[in-house]
């Protein structure tokens, strides 16, 4: 207590001085128009800068979360789009039997492009509904097919794989062919088994056929850049340049075909 | 003692009215050159008795400043400068302490001190007072040029008036 009194005796005048100065500045700022505007202006300059910086910082912290939200939202939109497309293509009396697709968004955590049988690893697995044989796409085109699933991870065969064999269609002429990889360029695949009578023009679009249970119809794959004839059987062999870049994958969507089981069962019975 | 209090109360009102009614009205500006203001009311603070406690000097200075602000229609600006000058009075007195110390019953005027001591004492506090006052009036260091010019020119003219007061009145209390 005595210490406190001594302290007050020593700095009491300084405290009084500071209190009185604050009182004066309060008067100045509140009752003088010019000083008031300067005070308001400079204080808002200071605080608005601070608020802005803090906002930027918190934005940065939530970036990852937002990215995931956007990927999920994207998958929902794409899913809706694919379902709508199938609806439109079919006559109305058949709409009860149309295929329904569900999309699951996943991040690519490993990806190879240099081998003959390339694979990629996804961060979703059996618990999220992934099954062997489901198709993998991203927003620009095809990516691969799910090959193996564990509880929370899955591996997929990339399109850049010698075993790849995907049913595709020329959009202009509706001719069906098989998409395969020859192991050379990561940008080019070959569309084989196109009948020789078809007139193919360089630049024709290639889309998925939708005949298999793996990919929905009409997903854009790429465009024809070269037309060759297969010497073994006389069929046409078209070089297709992929629309997407398989060396730069981040988020992909796994397609779950809700009616795949029914279709496969039926086809097996025949 | 009683005499000193009465004298200072009378001096308070004389300086207040002199500054607010007479000196405020004197316009020494010439065109754009508007840097000369005669301000001598803070001499009241400088002339308060040496034995007066510091906190009471601060409060009396605040009242003086608010009084002048009423005439100048600028609440707080003069008051702020007065409180600053009052706070600075003790360090300046300590800095200028003559050999043998002060006689605490005196007032710092020409009657008790020699002319060089009075000039230094008055100049230091007047300059501090003006610098603070014009800073508060501008309220932003964007106007640093105006602040310095106002302080220098007003200081020169006001110090002459203050010394004339000292020579004519020679206040004893």
Please provide a written account of the structure.
Chain A is an alpha+beta fold and 270 residues long. Chain A has 2 domains: 60 residues, no CATH class; 171 residues, Thrombin, subunit H (Beta Barrel). Chain A is 36% helix and 31% strand. A 6-stranded antiparallel beta barrel of chain A has the order 1-2-5-4-3-12. A 6-stranded antiparallel barrel of chain A has the order 6-7-8-11-10-9. Chain A is elongated, with a radius of gyration of 32 Å. The model of chain A has no long low-confidence stretch (mean pLDDT 84). Chain B has 173 residues and is mainly α. Chain B has a single domain, classed as Arp2/3 complex 21 kDa subunit ARPC3, CATH 1.10.1760. In chain B, 65% of the residues lie in helices and 0% in strands. Chain B has 6 helices and no strands. Classes of the chains: A alpha+beta (270), B mainly alpha (173).
The most extensive interface, with participating residues per chain, is: A-B, 22 and 20 residues
Please tell me the overall pLDDT of chain B: 88
Structural shape of chain B: globular
Q: Which strand-content bin applies to the residues of chain B?
A: under 5%
Largest sheet of chain A: 6 strands, antiparallel, barrel
Distance between the termini of chain A: 101 Å
Quaternary state of this entry equals heterodimer
The overall strand count of chain B is 0
Strand content of chain A: 25-35%
Instruction: Fill in the CATH topology of the largest domain in chain A.
Output: Thrombin, subunit H
Number of domains of chain A: 2
The CATH class of the largest domain in chain A, by name, is Mainly Beta
Q: What is the CATH class name of chain B?
A: Mainly Alpha
Please tell me the CATH architecture of chain B by its name.
Orthogonal Bundle
What class, by secondary structure content of chain B? mainly alpha
- Rg of chain B, nearest Å: 16 Å
Question: What's the helix-strand series of chain A?
Answer: HHHEEEEEEEEEEEEH
């Amino acid at each position: 207590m005595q210490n406190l009194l001594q302290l007050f005796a020593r700095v009491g005048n300084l405290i009084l001085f500071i209190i009185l100065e604050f009182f004066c500045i309060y008067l100045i700022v509140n009752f003088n128009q010019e000083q008031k505007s300067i005070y308001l202006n400079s204080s808002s300059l200071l605080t608005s800068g601070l608020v802005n910086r803090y906002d930027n910082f918190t934005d940065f912290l939530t970036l990852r979360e937002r990215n995931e939200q956007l990927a999920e939202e994207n998958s929902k939109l794409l899913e809706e789009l694919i379902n709508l497309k199938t609806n439109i293509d079919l006559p109305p009396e058949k709409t009860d039997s149309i295929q329904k697709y569900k999309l699951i968004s996943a991040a690519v955590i490993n990806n190879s492009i240099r081998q003959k049988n390339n694979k990629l690893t996804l961060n979703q697995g059996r618990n999220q509904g992934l099954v062997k044989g489901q198709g993998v796409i991203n927003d620009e085109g095809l990516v691969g097919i799910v090959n193996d699933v564990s509880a929370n991870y899955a591996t997929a065969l990339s399109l850049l794989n010698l075993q790849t064999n995907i049913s595709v269609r020329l959009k202009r002429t509706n001719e069906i062919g098989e998409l395969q990889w020859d192991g050379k360029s990561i940008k080019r695949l070959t569309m084989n088994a196109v009948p020789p009578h078809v007139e193919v023009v360089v630049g024709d679009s290639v889309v998925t056929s939708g005949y298999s249970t793996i990919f929905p119809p009409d997903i854009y794959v790429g465009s024809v850049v070269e037309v060759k004839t297969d010497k073994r059987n006389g069929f046409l062999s078209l070089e297709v340049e992929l629309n997407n870049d398989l060396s730069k994958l981040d988020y992909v969507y796994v397609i779950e075909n809700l009616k795949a089981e029914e279709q496969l069962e039926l086809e097996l019975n025949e | 003692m009683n005499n000193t209090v009465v004298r200072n109360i009378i001096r308070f009102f004389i300086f207040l009215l002199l500054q607010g009614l007479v000196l405020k009205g004197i316009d020494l500006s010439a065109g754009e050159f508007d840097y000369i203001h005669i301000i001598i009311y803070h001499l009241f603070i400088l002339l308060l008795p040496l034995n007066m406690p510091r906190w009471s000097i601060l409060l009396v200075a605040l009242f003086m400043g608010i009084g002048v602000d009423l005439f100048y229609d600028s609440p707080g600006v003069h008051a702020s400068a007065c409180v600053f000058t009052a706070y600075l009075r003790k360090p300046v007195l300590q800095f200028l302490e003559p050999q043998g110390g002060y006689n605490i019953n005196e007032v710092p005027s020409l009657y008790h001190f020699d002319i060089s001591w009075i000039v230094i004492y008055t100049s230091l506090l007047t300059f501090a007072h003006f610098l603070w006052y014009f800073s508060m009036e501008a309220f932003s260091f964007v106007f640093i040029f105006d602040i310095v010019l106002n302080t220098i020119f007003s200081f020169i003219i006001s110090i002459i008036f203050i010394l004339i007061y000292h020579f004519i009145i020679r206040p004893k209390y």
